[in-house]
Each structure stands twice: as C-alpha cells, then as structure tokens.
Amino acid sequence: MKKLVLITALIALVGFAWGQTTTGPWILIQQQQNVKIYRSYGECNGQLTVFLKVVNENNNAVSVTFDSAFNLSGNLFPVELKKNYTVSAGSTHGGDCSTEDAKINPYSYVSTIQMGVSDYIIRNLKIVQL
Fold first, then answer.
1. What is the DSSP letter of 9?
2. SS3 of 45, please?
3. Each residue of 33-83: pLDDT tens digit?
4. 8 pLDDT more than 80
5. Over the chain, what is the mean pLDDT?
6. In percent, how much of the chain has pLDDT > 70?
7. Which residues of 85-112 are buried (b: 16+ CB within 10 A; e: fewer)?
C-alpha cells in the first residue's frame, strides 16, 4: 500500500512539473460589454509565453475577436495573429499552458521582448452576444 501511494505521488509530481504554468501578474488590457481580457507573461516548459485570459461576466455566451500587436519601445508592430474565442456565460477561457489558442510565443513574431519596454496589445476588439 505504501508503494502504491508513493508511486502515485511521484507520478502526480512529475506530471505537475512537466506541464507547469508559471505566470506573472494578470494585467487587464481591454474591457468591453462585461468581457475582460487579461495578459500575463510567464513560461510554458521553459519558454517565454504571453498568456491571454478572457473572462465573460455576462449571462450569455459571447464571441470575442481581436487582432494582435506588439508595442516595442513605443512603436506598434501588428502581427498576423487574429484571435477568436467563444466563451460560455460566466466563465473564463485561457490562462495556462493547457489552452493552446490562448498562449503566444512572442519570438514567433518579434525578435526582442524587454519587460517594461515591450508589451503585447490587442486591437479591433469585437464582442458579440450569442
């Protein structure tokens, strides 16, 4: 019995460490029609990652679409990365490594990211009540 408990704990620990999400503070970057969009920087499997989290505070599901860009030292660089989410009433989409469509590798789009100087931003936010 002790071996089974020890093996189970070891498997859980390895699984936790492998898919672990480490994020910084969540920053509100846009808010419209009771939908809030947050951004955080962190790591997925050792890689710098931009995390997005969409919070729907409505009583209905919503469709959320927006374009992506990076602000690098005051210069805006739009990138070909349109986001489109359907978020159920009163729920949250994204926020960790397991949500592929809500995480971004910034180095796929820009060559440098410097905390406090560079930032991910969204543009052309559209929200439709479903």
1. H
2. coil
3. 999 999 999 999 888 999 999 999 999 999 999 999 999 888 898 989 999
4. no
5. 83
6. 82
7. bebeeeebbbbbbebeebbbebeebeee
* Sequence-separated (6 or more) residues with CB below 8 Å from residue 82: 65, 66, 67, 68
Give me the domains of the chain, ranges plus CATH numbers.
21-129 (2.60.40)
Residue for token pair 């994204």: 94
75, 68, 45, 35 alpha-carbon torsion, rounded to 10°: 120
Distances in Å between the Cα of 45 and the Cα atoms of 19, 50, 61 are 7, 13, 32
Q: Among all chains, which residue has been given the structure tokens 């409505």?
A: 58
Amino acid code (one letter) for 28: L
Q: What pLDDT is attached to residue 97? A: 93
